[in-house]
Amino acid sequence: MQHIHYIRVRYSETDAMGxxxxxxxxxxxxxxxxxxxxxxxxxxxxxxADGVSLPLxxxxxxxxxxxxxxxxxxxxxxxxxxxxxxxRFDVTxxxxxxxxxxxxxxxxxxxxxxTGKPIRPPEWLMELFDND
Amino acid sequence: MQHIHYIRVRYSETDAMGxxxxxxxxxxxxxxxxxxxxxxxxxxxxxxADGVSLPLxxxxxxxxxxxxxxxxxxxxxxxxxxxxxxxRFDVTxxxxxxxxxxxxxxxxxxxxxxTGKPIRPPEWLMELFDND
Amino acid sequence: MQHIHYIRVRYSETDAMGxxxxxxxxxxxxxxxxxxxxxxxxxxxxxxADGVSLPLxxxxxxxxxxxxxxxxxxxxxxxxxxxxxxxRFDVTxxxxxxxxxxxxxxxxxxxxxxTGKPIRPPEWLMELFDND
Amino acid sequence: MQHIHYIRVRYSETDAMGxxxxxxxxxxxxxxxxxxxxxxxxxxxxxxADGVSLPLxxxxxxxxxxxxxxxxxxxxxxxxxxxxxxxRFDVTxxxxxxxxxxxxxxxxxxxxxxTGKPIRPPEWLMELFDND
Lengths: 132, 132, 132, 132
Fold this sequence. Notes:
The structure is a homotetramer.
Chain A: E1 2-8, H1 24-39, H2 44-49, E2 56-63, E3 72-81, E4 86-95, E5 101-110, H3 123-129
Antiparallel strand pairs in A: 1-3, 2-5, 3-4, 4-5
């Protein structure tokens, strides 16, 4: 399951080094996950309404290039099960026009109820993201 | 009731213009409110545990000068009742060493229960902040 | 000059009170200004390339209602000259579907060169935003 | 070279899941790096004034536990050279009172001049951080 989404760098996301501040990568990863879920027909708000949460347990980012205010970025996200009880989202962000790389990485998520207790992934989730 | 607190500008709070991004002022105002509450002997976490919340209904900021990464800022906060059902915090932020002004402003807060329903201010709150 | 833009509330913009954190309003105001400038045919990056900056000197926000993760928000921005040397942007943010108000406010900006020194507004800026 | 620093979770750093938003970990890592540099007697602002920057090239976070508004967090940072041209900071964040783990991870940084061009680490940097 792959999805592409575009965002513009906000002024609030820049820093004094003349590029985006490093933690914004994780916020953009989240935008990518959100839009991937929406594209499945079941937005993440619906997951939470159905009692399923995806708290992060691990995140990794490689910083590959600059991104400045108002640059248009292309976020490509791939989602899949990571074993039987976790999900993994791989993300690549690049400059939309030049295809210059900006950053890439992944996040790994537990699958829990709304109180944070691990649950077995529901059927619909397995159908959407289990590639095996 | 007045309180003084010091913070350092984080790299994440700077922007490409070479100063702090404008919305950080409101985050620093919050730091000032938090420390003022702690100084009364009743931290804001205790307010919430006692069923009292202070959602913002209004905020105002005047931007007066630059602040760069790692600058030490002095936050001066004054708290008082604004009428019978609201609180007002006035904040001044300046460079700790040079006393150069950075910004100043205020926030006005409703007094509600934890669901957002307005309540009459509890006795202890009136005693702390009612100057009349 | 008025412009309408839509954004989704990010998870990173929520807080433990179950709504958006108050400083996000100023970041959304910025998104509105950015898109209004783009709609004039002269994006704000072009302003900066032409040696014109708009540092904030004042911001005001009234908080009117909740906004939660993934809510679609409608940002309406109006821009105009405020006297001969300042610009003012008025912003209203509401829930796109229900039209429930979220917040409204304004920002006032100096017109400076890229070093922060006040300048006379260039001809093109007056033509775009001077209503008199 | 190890350093310990304490921070309080800000309301702006919480999210609707009732813990800190995941990207804040990277902002707290930065606070830890900043204070470690200061503790060496050469604050990072001095590095930049001396023409040395440390842009991130990689970041990794493991999320281990919750942290809520106003929790006091203990940030432990270790810095060392990673090969001849990179630096690595390892960070552990835990609840200051209970020692419950919050997150841990690392960042890897290039050593560049202020324009982002890689440079040989200056003598003083090697003396501070080269353990071999």
